[in-house]
Amino acid sequence: MQTRLRKLDEGVVDATLLAYAGLKRMDMADEATAVLEWEEMLPAVAQGAIGIQCRDDDERALRYIDALNHEETFTCVSCERAFLAALDGNCKTPIAGQAQIIDGELRFQGLVASVDGSQIYRSSKVGAPADAEKIGREAGEEIKAEAGIEFFEWLQQQEEPAAVSA
Known about the structure:
Blueprint: H1 2-9, H2 20-25, H3 59-68, H4 71-86, E1 95-102, E2 105-113, E3 120-127, H5 132-147, H6 149-157
Antiparallel strand pairs: 1-2, 2-3
Helix pairs in contact: 4-5
């Protein structure tokens, strides 16, 4: 984080994107000049969530995990992952999605884009948190139908853009 901020100060880069949670954890929140809201930029699916996996018959581990589970986050991530699954997303597919529970409603926004950003398909859904997976799946199916199978086949043939070092 300090390296990226130093490059910014030295004019090596014009901008950098950092996790606000990381800045806060390092007592550097005052370094942030803006916090991006989901209207401006959606994150990758399940961004920032911690997942723990275990055998489904391991009762002891499941009890520990259950005590750590944050139900609202689990619900949101379930929605987001259902969206990703409906789109058959992989590491080459520019997919973003975020679910939030606001005033007891699950609100989801998702998108898929071409690598260069010239084509963007979006979906927004609102519903009951209990329908999280259905909401995510329907959003993904909506985008898949709008974009068409040809778009997704074309995406798989595209080269990933070169990484930008900051």
